[in-house]
Write a structure and sequence with these properties.
Number of strands: 6
Oligomer: single chain
Strand content: 15-25%
CATH architecture: 3-Layer(aba) Sandwich
Order of helices and strands: EEHEHEHEHEH
Radius of gyration: 14 Å
Strand order of the largest sheet: 1-3-2-4-5-6
CATH topology: Rossmann fold
Distance between the termini: 25 Å
Structural class: alpha/beta
Number of domains: 1
Largest sheet: 6 strands, mixed
CATH superfamily: Response regulator
């Protein structure tokens, strides 16, 4: 299920199967002072379904954040789909994953990810990562 919290017109679509990580991202946005609509998806398939059913281009999120390890459609599959689809290819995508594997980072860069961050273990580190999202929220 997708849960949407609306505070402004700009938005972030965050696909992650871990409810704690979804919670931390939402809390970190607020702590960083970023006012954005946050759309949650539990996996890449649900994220794509949300995007495909969004009727107008101006209602699409301005940033997509993906976890790599998700059921049904993982982050790399989702990223590949997004970057190959003209409707979504210009939306910046940031990877937020537990993987520190160099091949994962390289694969995501080659598929068109804007940035790749390892999920932090501390809340203040989450906030610092989230602050880097600011240029893509409008």
């Amino acid at each position: 299920m997708i849960v949407t919290t609306t505070t402004t017109a700009s938005g972030i679509l965050y696909a992650d199967d871990d409810s704690d990580d979804r919670f931390f991202l939402g809390e970190s946005l607020a702590a960083a002072g970023i006012n954005a609509r946050l759309i949650y998806a539990r996996d890449g398939e649900e994220a794509i379904q949300y995007l495909e059913t969004t009727p107008q281009q101006n209602l699409l999120p301005t940033l997509i954040v993906l976890d790599l390890n998700m059921p049904r459609k993982d982050g790399k599959e989702t990223l590949g789909y997004l970057k190959s689809n003209p409707r979504f290819s210009n939306i910046p995508v940031i990877i937020l994953s537990t993987s520190e594997n160099k091949s994962d980072k390289d694969d995501c860069a080659n598929l068109g990810a804007l940035s790749y961050f390892k999920k932090p273990s501390r809340y203040d580190e989450y906030i610092n990562i989230i602050k880097s999202f600011q240029p893509y929220i409008y």
